[in-house]
Design a protein that fits this description.
globular, binds zinc ion, Immunoglobulin-like, 3 domains, 6-stranded mixed β-sheet
Length: about 575
């Protein structure tokens, strides 16, 4: 049951030989968000084959680019594509032999569902690296034409072969068939060329044995979101927010065995149960949020979590010496044990939901920088709370979880940690990179009765999420449309005038049920709040990032803000 969502990419990229083919046409690829022009007739240089940010093309091949700065631990890179804003970071949807349709479900095709789920995930978590998505439609997979295999192999290897002197050999010899699982990620060896997701339809939507149409839908949607989460978690861990560089650990290049679960003694980046359990946790959450916005689609994220809990409970019950740390480096039960452990953490402290969805991965780079080789456990201590005021060390959490999951009946323990579907869909995530798009940054705001938390009547909803936290780019213009009767305003104070603050009116223009704002670009205003001028308690927060101005000259009267969300 786990095969469809295994992510062996980082491991396989170490061991698989790739090769080179000369051209990468065909395949029906398209780019949703970047110009896909290949019109440049100039001879590509060795290090810039993709100045137009086209799909299925490499930015770098022969030479791994030199770092823009470095220290003993990291080489820190500014790749060509880092000139693109995060919000405009390309997502390329490359399709191959798309033959099946699931238009009976909500009137949307398989390819469109995949695209929508990835878009929704990007709009929720953000995206910091370019992404090529490879959708292989042939079902069964052994019907793929040889010519299409060659095209797929060429395209995939073009953007995912390890960059450097062996690129040509690797690309020429790559054979990805049969594709044995869905996959997704962002590897250090191919970091200059972005991330990838592979979605073989035969192994996702085409699996047999689903109990119902609903189960088929929710499992398939979860796998797609799971793979996006891998891209998210594995790219975020390299991001040095201070220098705005992609910081790659030098040790991984000089000693690849650090990443090999058959020889390593400790995780190089994340415990496997967080790598995969975290992607399951994120995949369930993201696909439930997405499904919530789609008429005619029903998923049951509570049941999805319960299935994982049950698998974990049974494993620990049947193996007296079993520990969560058994899954630090590998193991299929790690998917379930990790998802159950993260759900337990959410039960222990509300803030741990955001830690599981974002903060652990944001914290990885500074933790690794502070103590090389220990980011996997120090980031845990930086992100996960034991209670309202103390953090867990990873080892004390593992010990506590091992005891807890054997401390009662399956039903009682499940009832202790279970969340409702509304909690799963609506509990807030505060990512650290922009989570709004697409151009031209039109954001539709609706109002409806609250679904979680106490008090108040109506709440604002954005992207289907109650009081969604937005992360926006400083200096960028955003237009919000809102329902009549709920005037949408901004303030530097939470809940605006209802919270004792005043309306923020700089660079604002108001139309009929819409308001446009150029986000402040000032370090003194790192956060705004949106609120309804007619009703208290409806709004949420807007974190402003990529600030380039110190703002010291015009910061009069700014309150609030501070140093970010704190979790
Ligand atoms: Zn995975």
């Amino acid at each position: 049951m786990y095969g469809v969502c295994m992510n062996m990419k980082i491991i396989s990229l170490v061991s698989i030989l790739f090769l080179i083919v000369s051209c990468g046409g065909g395949g029906g690829g398209s780019s949703s968000y970047s110009s896909n022009s290949s019109g440049s007739s100039s001879t590509p240089t060795l290090e810039n084959l993709n100045s137009g940010n086209a799909c299925k093309k490499a930015w770098y091949t022969t030479t791994f680019p030199n770092p823009t700065s470095q220290n003993a631990v990291f080489s820190k890179h500014t790749f060509f594509w880092q000139s693109i804003s995060f919000q405009a970071m390309p997502v390329c949807i490359n399709t191959y032999e798309v033959t099946d349709s699931i238009s009976s479900v909500g009137g949307v095709s398989w390819t469109d569902y995949t695209t929508e789920i990835i878009d929704y995930s990007k709009r929720t978590l953000g995206q910091i690296v370019p992404l090529n998505v490879f959708i292989l439609g042939a079902n069964p997979q052994n019907t793929v034409l040889d010519s299409e295999k060659a095209t797929y192999n060429t395209d995939f290897a073009t953007v995912q072969a390890p960059v450097g002197s062996n690129y040509s050999t690797a690309l020429a010899n790559y054979d990805g068939f049969p594709i044995e699982s869905a996959g997704g990620g962002y590897s250090h060896e191919a970091a200059p060329n972005g991330a990838d997701i592979q979605i073989p339809q035969s192994l996702v939507w085409g699996q047999s044995g689903f109990a119902s149409d609903e189960e088929q839908i929710q499992q398939s949607f979860k796998v797609i979101a799971h793979e996006y989460f891998h891209v998210y978690q594995n790219s975020l861990k390299f991001y040095d927010d201070t220098t705005k560089t992609i910081a790659l650990p030098k040790a991984w290049f000089s000693n690849p065995s650090l990443l090999d679960p058959t020889s390593a003694s400790t995780p190089a980046y994340f415990p496997w149960w967080i790598e995969e359990g975290g992607a399951e946790f994120g995949g369930i959450v993201l696909s439930a949020k997405y499904a919530n916005t789609k008429a005619g689609i029903t998923v049951d994220p509570v049941q999805q979590f319960q299935d994982h809990f049950n698998t974990a409970f049974d494993h620990f019950a049947a193996n007296a010496g079993a520990s969560l740390s058994d899954f630090n480096l590998s193991g299929n039960v790690g998917y379930s044990a990790g998802a159950a452990a993260l759900l337990y953490l959410w039960y222990k402290e509300e803030k741990n939901f955001n830690a599981a969805m974002s903060k652990y991965y944001t914290d990885w780079y500074p933790a690794e920088a502070a103590s090389p080789g220990n980011g996997w456990q120090d980031a845990f201590q930086d992100a996960f709370w034991k209670n309202g005021s103390e953090y867990y060390t990873l080892s004390e959490f593992v010990s506590e979880f091992n005891t807890w999951i054997r401390s009662g009946s399956k039903a009682d323990l499940w009832n202790t940690i279970a969340k409702t579907s509304d909690q799963i869909i609506h509990t807030n995530i505060i990512p650290t990179t922009p989570n709004t798009y697409p151009l031209p940054y039109d954001i539709e705001v609706t109002a409806a009765a609250k679904v979680i938390d106490n008090g108040g009547v109506n709440k604002y909803f954005i992207d289907g999420i109650q009081q969604k936290s937005l992360v926006v780019k400083a200096g960028q213009s955003y237009k919000f449309s809102y329902p009549a009767g709920h005037p949408f305003k901004f303030s530097t104070t939470s809940d605006g005038t209802h919270g004792g603050g005043s309306e923020y009116t700089t660079n604002i223009s108001v139309g009929t049920n819409e308001i446009t704002i150029v986000m402040p670009n000032s370090s003194s205003i790192p956060r705004l709040y949106y609120y309804c001028s007619a009703h208290p308690g409806m709004g949420g927060l807007i974190d402003i990032v990529e600030i380039t101005s110190s703002g010291s000259s015009n910061s009069g009267g700014v309150g609030g803000g501070g140093s970010g969300p704190g979790y």
